[in-house]
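Study this:
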Amino acid sequence: MVINKEGFFEDTLKSIDRKTIAVEMESYGVARACRYANKGKTKPIIFKSVMDFTFNKSDNDGKINWKKFAAYTSAQFMNYLFDKKVI
């Protein structure tokens, strides 16, 4: 869902956390779907690494595939939290 209703971000999201400056669309979509699925009993857990480091509009700079690296770091973080029983 694209948040395009005027004032929604300021009125809704900034009231929850005044330091919020942006919303990642895919994660917001997952969280919103979980809110409406199963009468809200489904709780989202979202891990996402930023991979904005690209070279000439490519995910690969010749040495590292940044998209794969971002996926790897997200998976390792989730694994750590489960392994250490943080969540």
User: Anything to note?
Assistant: The chain has a mean pLDDT of 82. Helices lie at 8-16, 25-36, 66-83. The CA atoms of residues 13 and 80 lie 29 Å apart.
